[in-house]
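## Example record

The block below lists the input lines for one assembly entry, exactly as stored, with component labels intact.
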Amino acid sequence: MTFVSILYGLLFWAATLILVVGVGRRIYFYMQIPVPLKIPTTPAPITQGGVVWRMFREVVFFQSLFRASKYTWLFAFLFHMALWLVLLRHTRYFMEIGAFLSFIQPFGKYASFAMVLGLTGLLARRILVDRVRYISAPSDFLMLALLMGIGLSGMLMTFVAHTDIVMVKGFFRGLITFDFSPLPASPILLLHLLLVAVLMLVFPISKLMHAPGVFLSPTRNQVDNPREKRHISKWALELEQQQKTYLDEVKHG
Amino acid sequence: MADYEVPKLKGEGYVEIPTIKPDAMAGKGPFIAKPDFQKALHFPSDFQAAENGKFELVPDWKERALTKLDDLRHRYRSLQLYLDICVKCGACTDKCHYYIGTHDPKNMPVARQDLLRKVYRRYFTFAGKHFPKLVGAVDLTEEVVDDWYNYYHQCSQCRRCSVYCPYGIDTAEVSMAAREILDHIGRGSKYNNEIISKVFKVGNNLGLPQPALADTLEGLEEDVEADTGIKVRFPLDEEGAEVLLVTPSADFFAEPHVDGLMGYAKVFHEAGISWTLSSYASEGANFGMFIGSYENMRRIALRIREAAIKLKVKRIVFGECGHAWRVAYSFLNTLAGPFDFLDPKYPVPQHILEVTWGLIQDGKLVIDKSQNDDKVLTFHDSCNVARGSRMGDKPGGQFEYPRNVIKAVCNHFVDMPADTIHDATYCCGGGGGLLTDDLMELRIKGAQPRMEALKYVTEQQGVTHMAAICAICKSQFTKVIPYYGFKMEQIVSVHQLVSKALVLQRQVSVQACPDEDDDDNDDA
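Predicted structure tokens for the full assembly:
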């Protein structure tokens, strides 16, 4: 085992742990915060099934973004859908390839172009549109750079300087099964993996939380039925039960 | 008319998206509420007038602001989530009427949120604590507070941005939270907080006491009788009536609001529904929402519950008012429910348009549409009705009901361009607690997108009048519309149209009182 392999093994264990635990804790944190009022952006569905359908349109087709800006939608949609294909293709480094995985391999391969194209569009918009430039912090540019770095280094290995992917698979299988084997000594691969690890590490503390966050957004996930069903949060109920007007008059315990 | 720089209209039905003009609307914001008014709303009042005529902040304002922010983000998931998940995609940047009208980049919804977000990041997130420059986090300073006060009072909480945000981030939620923080450090807005304290003292935003209200209503009865020959009642505090009508107090005297009130009265009269206003809950518009204060909003809403119990009514109906209807439809059951003491056959509360459209469909009203033949109408969807409520039992009913009623009482109706109506509607420019003369420039500029759409249908389709169902829209438009070359009479209430076309068949009101001096109802 090389030193680099050990280092990367530890890095990916840590990154995975932080990603899973960090995102999990954050979601739990959001979920236990009360939603005191009914605030769906109307017209809103009047059934739970309707909410599922609304959310489906939102996360699969980016419906609201489509209404807002066709260019942003195009680039964002390209990027996200391509990212899914690329991610699916990457599962071959963790599991055996079945019929489905073999089928999507070429799609995932060429999706990388769409992914980088989408990112380029988003970056161009951030630079060229004065309004978007105004609202961009350095971290917003860095996030795009990070994703582009991941995409480009991956494409380099797919299309230009191939790396020993059997060894890569061995390495990651090893991390899962504790049957360790080394990484190939390829600088591009190491860069690619490093950027991926950084992405995993910053996920729970960055705007990337928009991915799980959208499901918890009250304006999108609430059923429009305030007249039919009384909605009341815990702290508001306390106020009511103790017949107080202001929260600082409420006795706890 | 005072002199303001008024945006030029193109008359092509759409607005061009301006390039940013930083600090175009920099300023001091609306007048600040005195400590007395803050106290009436249970906000800290330990601050004083400074020498320059301004007000100081409360002692330890920084700690107290951060404590409030921390409190709110643990009580409102919307706030916490929306501060965290914005990706700065820019989808909302060209959606706010105030940005379009003023060109000030801090009026772009995301930039407005960022004013609070950058402080949240600095004190409550890992990245902001350790790498503030990287994520645009800043320390909380007095300049930041001034920016909050100025720009969070340039948001009418109309939710248009939330329609277009891929995550449904609602700037209204952020701006309400910001106003609540400001209220805790001596930066309440005079307009909103003075009005709320009037509701607590008298029962309505105008501070109209029971005798004055009774007098006004009597005057209206006389007006309608002189006009129609029929004594249509405008009952106040009449116990045992079927319906409690809660309507914005502007309906009692402002034009064209009062013509709408006459419309409601005629509809109830004609349908034989007994109804009453309450002097104790004589206000539909709940300004507690504007300042983001659940507690004050609830305190106002509870007056309606108490009035309904005291007057032993069976139903609660709301008059034409946008924010009132959002609070009524979406929040009333939460704030002041459950309403199990009312007639379960009817939703609680109902909108007057639900009542009127129901009666029209049942053929209970005799209509002479030709009475409105002198007008070609269009309809302005009020922001909080369109995006924060519903009418009827289907999504989008809030768009259909007013249009159905207008079409039932008028022969000529056309809609404005599609990206300015329904849930894409623009705010009138005066909503969300900004309907005050000290914000006149903002109000004029904020009306630009709606004026642009109105001009288009005026020129292309001969529209003569624009109907609205919100007291604020009506007040704002009548005031602002002359700056754009229209006449204030062009703004009408939907029930004003109903009133005009309704042919009264019932000669004697079901609430006719034999004794004319029966006006000594007990005061609440």
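Strands of chain B lie at 243-246, 275-276, 315-318, 350-351, 377-379, 465-468, 491-493. Chain B is about 45% helix and 5% strand.
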